[in-house]
Structure formats: structure tokens, C-alpha cells
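Customer escalation, tier 2.

The customer says the design service returned an amino acid string that "doesn't look like it belongs to this structure." They asked us to rerun it and document both sides in this ticket. The original C-alpha cells are below, unchanged.
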């Protein structure tokens, strides 16, 4: 059973990379100052739709700190296919956990998530 879960996680991760690499409006080097491939490699398991929220790794945080996070939210909002793979709420949770400034209330981060007045904060 554990092997099957790992296989599914790997499949979801690879599918995420393939979808994002083929989106016309998101390039590997975004206008947001970061590398989408690096973000997915280091943060994919923390922002993927499946599973519960888990605190990000230091490598994930370091990778996210190199991007304009508001721009990144806009980039992953472009197409609904991304919403099938990346969870906007988890993405905001990861950003807050990493100490990043998140976009203002009402901003979309992913095609299906709008930042509420009380974003998902990590437990202290």
C-alpha cells in the first residue's frame, strides 16, 4: 500500500510538471523572478491538491523566496488545469509558513482559490 501511494505521488508530481511546462502563458523562467520547475521540484508535495497541509521544507521556502509571490499566484491562476494539481489554499499556507508576504485579500491564487480575510495560518 505504501509503495502504491508513493507511485501515485510521483505520478501527480510528474503530471504537474508536464501540465505547467505546456501552458502557453507560464514559462519555466517566469516573469515573477523564479523558476517554475524549481518551485515544483522543491514545493510540489507541499502545494499539491492531494493530502493534508504539511509545513514546507527549508529548500522549498528558499526557492519561494526567490519569486514575486503575488505574481506566482497570478501565474498559477491562468488555467483551470493547474487547479486540478495545485491547491491554492496550501500554496498560501506554504507562503505564510515560509514568512513570505502574501497577496491582498480577494486575490486569486490558483483558478479555484481566492484569498479570504483570514488566510490559512500555520499553527504557532
Amino acid at each position: 500500500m505504501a509503495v502504491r501511494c508513493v507511485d501515485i505521488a510521483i505520478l501527480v508530481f510528474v503530471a504537474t510538471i508536464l501540465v505547467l511546462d505546456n501552458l502557453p502563458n507560464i514559462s519555466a523562467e517566469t516573469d515573477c523572478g523564479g523558476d517554475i520547475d524549481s518551485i515544483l521540484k522543491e514545493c510540489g508535495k507541499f502545494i499539491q491538491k492531494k493530502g493534508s497541509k504539511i509545513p514546507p521544507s527549508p529548500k522549498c521556502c528558499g526557492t519561494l523566496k526567490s519569486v514575486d509571490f503575488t505574481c506566482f499566484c497570478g501565474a498559477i491562476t491562468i488555467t483551470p488545469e493547474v487547479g486540478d494539481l495545485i491547491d491554492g489554499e496550501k500554496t498560501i499556507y506554504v507562503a505564510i509558513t515560509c514568512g513570505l508576504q502574501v497577496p491582498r485579500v480577494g486575490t486569486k491564487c490558483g483558478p479555484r482559490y481566492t484569498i479570504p480575510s483570514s488566510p490559512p495560518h500555520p499553527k504557532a
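Tier 2 assessment: The sequence is consistent with the input. The longest helix spans residues 2-21. Residues 5-12, 22-29 have pLDDT under 50 and may be disordered. Sent an explanation to the customer and offered a walkthrough call.
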